[in-house]
Amino acid sequence: MKPIIGVMPLWDEEKDSIWMLPGYMDGIREAGGIPFIFPLTEDAGELERLLSMCQGILLTGGQDVAPEIYHETPLEGLIEGCTQRDRMERIVLKAALERELPVLGICRGIQFINAALGGTLFQDLPLQHPSEVCHRQKPPYDEPAHTVQVLPGTPLSDCLKAEEIPVNSCHHQAVKDLAPGLEAMAVSPDGLTEALWKPDCRFLWAVQWHPEFSHLRDENSRQIFKAFIASAQ
Questions:
Q1: pLDDT of amino acid 206
Q2: Which residues of 62-93 are buried (b: 16+ CB within 10 A; e: fewer)?
Q3: Least enclosed by CB within 10 Å: which of 22, 88, 96, 129?
Q4: pLDDT digits over 46-79, tens only?
Q5: Which residues have a catalytic role annotated?
Q6: CATH of the domain at 199
Q7: What is the distance between the alpha carbons of residues 121 and 76, in angstroms, rounded to a whole number?
Q8: Domain span at residue 206?
C-alpha cells in the first residue's frame, strides 16, 4: 500500500487562496507516496480526522514563521507571515509527533519545526547574519546556489553517501539556536544549520533547501523524498 502523505497548504494573501507547487506533490508520488493537500484550518477536530488518514506529513515552504513563536519581537517591515498557518501547523506537528508519524520539513518547514520545538531563528539573514553565501537565489530554482557539508554519522549522511552536496537556496530566515532534542545534519559554508533531525523520533527530518524544485535533475533530492516515503510505509 502506498502511504498517504498530508501536505501543508501554501497561502496567497493577495488572492485569498491556498495553492501548491507541483514539485512537492510530484516528489512524493515519484518516491512512492500519495499526496493530498490539507485545508487551511485551525479546527483541531478536523485536523485530527485528516491526520488519521495520513502515514506522513510534509511541512512546505512559504511565509515567514512568526517571531512570537520563539518569543522575539518581529523586526519592523521584514516579516511576512500567515498567523492562521502558524497556528494550524503547531496543532499538526504536535499531533503528528504524538502519533509517531514521519515528518519532513522543507525551507519554512525546517524553520517552523525548530521554532515550534523551542529553538530560535534568524529573522532576516542579510541583517542578522550577513554573508557572501547566496541564500536567496534568482530563478531557475533547480540550479545549485551553494554547497553544504553533510555531517558524518547522521541519517542524511547514511542516505546520501556524501560529505558535501550542492543545494539550491531561497530564504531570508534560518535556524539560529537548535531546539532541545534536535541535531544538525548539514551546515552551510557560513555556519547555518541546513538540515536537522530528531533522533528520538521515528522520522523527523528537515532541510533548508528545495528538493521540490531540484528533484527532477538531482539524485540527492530524490533520495530525501525516498527516505521520507520509506519511513511511512
A1: 99
A2: bbbbbbebbeeeeeeeebebbeebbebbebbb
A3: 22
A4: 999 999 999 999 999 999 999 999 999 999 888 8
A5: 107, 210, 212
A6: 3.40.50.880
A7: 16
A8: 4-232
